[in-house]
Give the backbone structure.
Amino acid sequence: MKPVIILLLLTHIVSASAAEFSCTITSNKGEPVAEAVISLVPLDAAAPPVSATAQVEIVQQSQEFTSYITVVQSGTKVVFPNHDTVQHHIYSLSKPKKFELPLYNPGQAESIVIDIPGLVTIGCNIHDWMITHLVVVPTPWFAKSDAQGSAKITAPAGRYRLEIWHPRGTMTAKEITLADNSAANEVVTLTLKPDRRVRRALGAKSGGY
């Protein structure tokens, strides 16, 4: 009987200590910012380690990466399947993880694991326009903003460093506190630089927000 009572108490504590965090990202022009990375880094305790089976994919298809921005917890396996009709040669010179995946054929896949948090910008040595950003964070509590600039995270109550990153802005950070069984909201404005990406389909530079 006692183990059951203890389990019920622990379940109640975990449930009661959960908090909802919402964040809305807007540009300096007052427009919503999509694909901003929002993460909550705990300040009073170590973040839970990543699952040994954690895995994400960044696919190559139509000579593009299917995701421009991917966010993972450090230690996550990142797989690069080639769903294209041509070979790819993926590489990064970024400080958290310098790597090279030499020419591999359609239907094949390569993978890496990045243990150090930070930004890893990845390109293809054959197709210069192919760029993707892998944001590695030291926490399981993260999200990307949607087309309305909104993101939501459920995390335990406590103190956190809220970090927000976008490829056309600069890293923004501030301390926040989430209370037990509560909801917190933040509205953050980012000053964005012009979008300089070259899209293969357009063959020209495109405008941004």
User: Anything to note?
Assistant: The two ends are 60 Å apart (CA to CA). The chain has a mean pLDDT of 88. The longest strand covers residues 18-27.
